[in-house]
């Protein structure tokens, strides 16, 4: 297996607006118990709402990447590395993912393991989450 640089430039997925309904659904489904994700009645009356758990943001990022068509040759997500949560994602946030291809290597079966930098950004382009994703990919079709 040899490492090879990957062609391609940074591209953005379409955006999705995060809703409080999505957040509350993921908090309930995931069984989160931390007070950050479960403000009490008094806190809610004062306007407090739960932010999106980090794992929920990663789930949205994966869906945005998949729906974007930017990785049509993808077979599977193999690994997430170097995940950094830079700021909380709250309801009303418009979220999109900026994808930057990195190095790749060919497997023994002729598939590729491609590194991508995923950065979730808000409407202003401010980074909210950063991660390196390793994707198993079909090789490009010959010209």
The H/E string reads EEEHHHEEEE
> What name is given to the CATH topology?
Thiol Ester Dehydrase, Chain A
What is the oligomeric state here? single chain
Measured by DSSP, the beta-strand proportion falls in: 35-45%
Unreliable spans: 1-6
Secondary-structure class: alpha+beta
Shape: elongated
Structure description:
The chain is of the alpha+beta class. It has one domain: Thiol Ester Dehydrase, Chain A (Roll). Helix content is 22%, strand content 36%. It has helices at residues 20-30, 41-45, 54-68, and strands at 3-4, 11-12, 16-17, 74-85, 94-106, 112-121, 127-137. Strands 1, 2, 3, 4, 5, 6 and 7 form a 7-stranded antiparallel beta sheet that branches. Mean pLDDT is 90; it is low at 1-6.
What is the topology?
Blueprint: E1 3-4, E2 11-12, E3 16-17, H1 20-30, H2 41-45, H3 54-68, E4 74-85, E5 94-106, E6 112-121, E7 127-137
Attribute tags:
143 residues, alpha+beta, Thiol Ester Dehydrase, Chain A, seven-stranded antiparallel sheet, 22% helix, 36% strand, disordered N terminus
Brief sketch in words of this structure:
The protein is of the alpha+beta class and 143 residues long. It contains 3 helices and 7 strands; from the N terminus they run βββαααββββ.
């Amino acid at each position: 297996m040899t490492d090879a640089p990957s062609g391609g430039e940074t591209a953005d997925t379409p955006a999705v607006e995060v809703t409080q309904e999505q957040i509350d659904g993921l908090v309930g489904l995931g069984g989160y118990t931390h007070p950050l994700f479960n403000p009490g009645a008094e806190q809610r009356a004062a306007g407090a709402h739960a932010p999106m758990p980090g794992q929920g943001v990663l789930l949205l990022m994966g869906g945005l990447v998949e729906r974007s068509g930017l990785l049509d040759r993808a077979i599977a997500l193999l690994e997430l590395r170097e995940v950094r949560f830079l700021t909380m994602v709250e309801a009303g946030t418009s979220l999109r993912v900026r994808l930057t291809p990195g190095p790749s290597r060919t497997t023994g079966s002729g598939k590729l393991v491609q590194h991508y930098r995923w950065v979730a950004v808000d409407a202003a382009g401010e980074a909210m989450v950063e991660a390196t994703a390793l994707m198993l990919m079909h090789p490009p079709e010959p010209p």
